[in-house]
Amino acid sequence: MSLSTRPTGAQALMRGLAVIDAVAEGHHGLAAIGERINCTRSTTHRLVSALVHAGYLRQSPQGYQLGLKLATLGAHARKQMPLAALARPIIEALAQKCGDSVHLGVRDGDDVVYLDKVAGSRGLEMRSRPGLRLPLALTGVGRALMLDLDEGQWQRLYTQARAHQQRQSEAPVAGLSPLEPPTWPDYQTRLLDYQKTGVVLDLEDNERGIRCVAAPVRDEQGMIVAAISIASATPWMSDARLSELGPSVHDAAAQLSHRIARPDLHPDATFSPPAGAFHE
After folding, report:
1. Residue 187, Cα to own-chain centre: how many angstroms?
2. pTM of the predicted model as reported, rounded to 2 decimal places
3. Are 252 and 94 contacting, i.e. CB atoms less than 8 angstroms apart?
4. Cα separation of 42 and 63, whole Å?
């Protein structure tokens, strides 16, 4: 059902949520938000004003930004997710061991959503954060979530990621440099190699100067339900070091898979797959 065919109350709600999504994607001005949600300037202004008043958005010199209420809700949401609770000690230990940032991500439809992040000890700032949503095929952690899909799905998701990057190059988001993804044949070859090793690489495909290594997390039935990645700046992520970190991230993913598969051994935290985790 489209926004225009929903009941009036539902339509207003969905438009308000669309505004929040637009701002999260990097559209910070009224005109850009209105174009993104396909609403007139007056309607967009009313929606944005209501969200600012409620604390879901805030106004800054750079335009409209996500508000503190969303940060609070995000923190509560992460605490209520069993997967994040199961993974936290594992990704903390991995970050301490390697000194780099470690991420936990899940699939939601055609996107990867970052559930958690443990910052590394190098003081490096990168744009990844809990709650960030990106096309699956764009990131290392997203590609790890794709490994069991067929090649037709790979190409569809690759095409979406390429279109996303082209949009960003036309209207860049703060912190996102225009990047050219690998060609489809090269991308396909890389994924086939990653299928064999169970370890995925991101060679500055998503963020300029950032490389990462990732591995999928599986449930008791062997289905991919999450992924873990280690990311850092290129000077600390040579090809040799990526190879060295591969077994570490693979082992961390295996540990989390075991915790999911054997809840009887971890009664403090049970697991249920996040909504959208298996959308094809």
Report:
1. 19
2. 0.68
3. yes
4. 17
